[in-house]
Please model this.
Amino acid sequence: MTELPPDTSAPVDTPGRIFVPDFVRPERRRLVLIAGILASSMGFIDGTVVSIATPAMRATLGASLGQITWINNGYLVTLSALILAGGAFGDRFGLGKVFGLGIGLFIVTSLICALAPSPELLILARLAQGVGAALMVPGSLAVISRAYPREMRGRAIGLWAGASAITTAGGPIIGGLALTLGGDAMWRWIFAINLPLGIIALWFLKRGINKDAARPGEPIDLIGAGLATLGLGLLAWALAHGEDGGGVIAPLPIALAFAGAGVLALFVLHQRVSRKPMMPLSLFASRTFSAANFATFTLYFGLTTITFFLPMLTIAGWGISEFVTILALGPLSLCMVLFSTRFGRLSERVGPGPVIAAGAFLAAVAHFWLARSVMGMDFWLGVLPPMTLMGLAMSMVVAPLSTAVMGAVRDDQTGIASGVNNAISRTGGLIAVALMGSVAGAVYSELGGPASYGLPVEVPGHAEAMSGAFSRLVLVCGALSLVASAVALFGIRMTSAEKRAAARKRVAAQAGSASARR
Model:
């Protein structure tokens, strides 16, 4: 799944993300900063390049479309379900220890991914890699916030964000070039590159941290984390295997879908009665908070659908190289870098609702445009222009969504609120890949496809059926974006006082914390 570059307007704080003087000696703060940058880079590289490498994985592993979606979703299931608990583990057992554990687990599982001889082992490794990321991602900026005093923190986070943006832009280019020149087997190096990065990060972390205090009394919602993981896993599996290739829904996926929904219902019930829930349901009592998270889910559902299935279309269907395909995703990163801060400031003046509504409407236009233009199988005129519009649309919504979320809750709830919003964006991507994988397979068969969606073969009718299937996917996403636009316009309403408060929180957050949706 392709990720957007770091959004320094959307903090994901946890109670322990404050400056602690003896956590790191002043002369060694830069070591911790480098460790945070390297850890983030691993996640950004994996998140951006894996979608480009899926046709190569299918070719070398003989993976089915369902298996290839689970190579993506295995990572997202555990990351989406556990990321809120990851920060709590750092507070409970020591931020540096848990961050280092996350990096170590990410390294080991990346090695298994690189060596995996079968789709099944790669899926299991990706599940475990998501656990490592859930411990590593919250810790990346937490260690920086704890190491740097407030007057120095903004510059440190700016360096982190800049380095991460360079990695986000450079990683796909290098990965696409390697796959183009080195052949299908080069996908393994996408995971193998994490080994030196992770080892260096661990060395800097060990050298940098002086005193890693734990908080033994900090509660962790282990039951909630387990229920969320099981429920999302069952639901994702059911959606990804919803049809048998002949357009008939099989009994087992139906049963597992109900089971997953039941487990998620238990998760919601547990959050209601838990003394320390990982996702406080009281947050959703705010209409603005609920509307912002609905818009987040639907917009990231559409974005992930494009970034996961478009590379399969252009590489496996149209025969375009991985390196050229990367150019289709470039406008997303470029527009975020150029415009997201400007739209964030605009949302502080006029309110986030109208800005999000306009961005979601442009996203719908981009989806509908792409659905029509891909039928001509012209990459330069049929893909790049609507993808540029999509980049502009997403740059309009990311920072305003953060403003809406933070403006809808109390000052002491902004950390958990933005954490919930972050998890919902990942869950939207998870459900998108699982559900749309089944839809793509069914529509491909319906259109007379001779092989399988995303399988790199050169047979008559394959490219046409893949183009038609992808077009159907993005039409659905366009409709969802229109709904998100309406919900944002009428559901995200903030008073002038709330706008000013949200702006203050956002400015304070930029000085003290930052987040990447990775």
In short: The radius of gyration is 22 Å. Confidence is low (pLDDT under 50) at residues 1-17, 510-518. Residues 90 and 98 are 5 Å apart (CA to CA).
